[in-house]
Amino acid sequence: MSRIILAIESSCDETAAAIFREDRLLSERVASQQVHEAYGGVVPELASRAHQQHIVPVVAQVCKEAGIKRTQLTHIAFTQGPGLIGSLLVGTCFAKGLGMALNVPLVPVHHIKAHLLANFIEGPRPQFPFLGLVVSGGHTQLLWVESYHRMELLGQTLDDAIGEAFDKIAKMLGFSYPGGKHIDAHAGKGDPKAFSFPITRMSGLNFSFSGIKTAVLYFLRKASKEQADFAKVRLDDICASVQYALVTMIEEKVSQAMAQTGARQLVIGGGVAANSELKRRLRAHAEQQGWKVFIPSVAHCQDNAAMIGMAGYYHLAQGGAAIPSTEAVSMARMPL
Ligand code: KG4
Ligand code: ZN
User: pTM of the full predicted structure?
Assistant: First the structure.
């Protein structure tokens, strides 16, 4: 009998569900939360409440679109962590309740691992082992990936995540939250060499993105004293120069990690993997070096439930156990 997996994602501010038949995606839905825009960042309590409102209709929609009755489900995969604890609790409790009612086991999924497994949803799949790069609003990590269960952290940011740096700088420039995509759009029209922002080089395979954020803040303060509308007039050039520096920091460490591990495949995931400059530079670098690079579609770079279902499938297919629904717990911090 083939596995029919319902997947649920609720770690931050997207409530998402998907249905898989084995490793094939049948349907998916994401309900985004606009409520945070006015606050310039995710407000955890508001996120939890919005998840509660969205989760039942989102799950009903994916079942309907896949033509699957709840009684046909064989597993429920859910994001166990890491993430906002209140948000995670909504998804976990929903999964537990439904699992108990239907008497089906649960598959706990690691959100960061799932961002990499997003590359298995469409198109040609990577082959294990590979170098993984996760670039999101909460994480910037390089991982050596032997299987879903065997991932080793090689390096990570010691302060802000790259998405956080994009969003904080975007806020300084007057963009709404999350601002990464706005910087990307304006950067496409600007000169990346117009201004020079610091490229922080940490030891080993670690990153740091707090220095550039502060540098941009002081740069804007100084420039706007001399010309009040500086940020407005030079917006495209500022965005292009900031993005150039941020992407350079990623490209340098990826290059170092590929050499260190001898990897031939680079697999990228997370919201910032949707960035056009990051994609362009890493693809060009890979072509020059003869590596293969895998980047999900934009919808699967951002938080979604298809990646949770794909990870849930690999969790089971590579020997992981499903757990009774009574044993499901949420974890704000979750080891690999
Ligand atoms: O993976 P994700 O949806 O949520 C987390 O798990 O954090 O990532 C969200 C992050 C935000 O910081 C957002 O600004 C950033 O991804 N992002 C982008 C782009 N699209 C989304 N950053 C730069 N360029 C983009 N095109
Ligand atoms: Zn994420």
Answer: 0.96
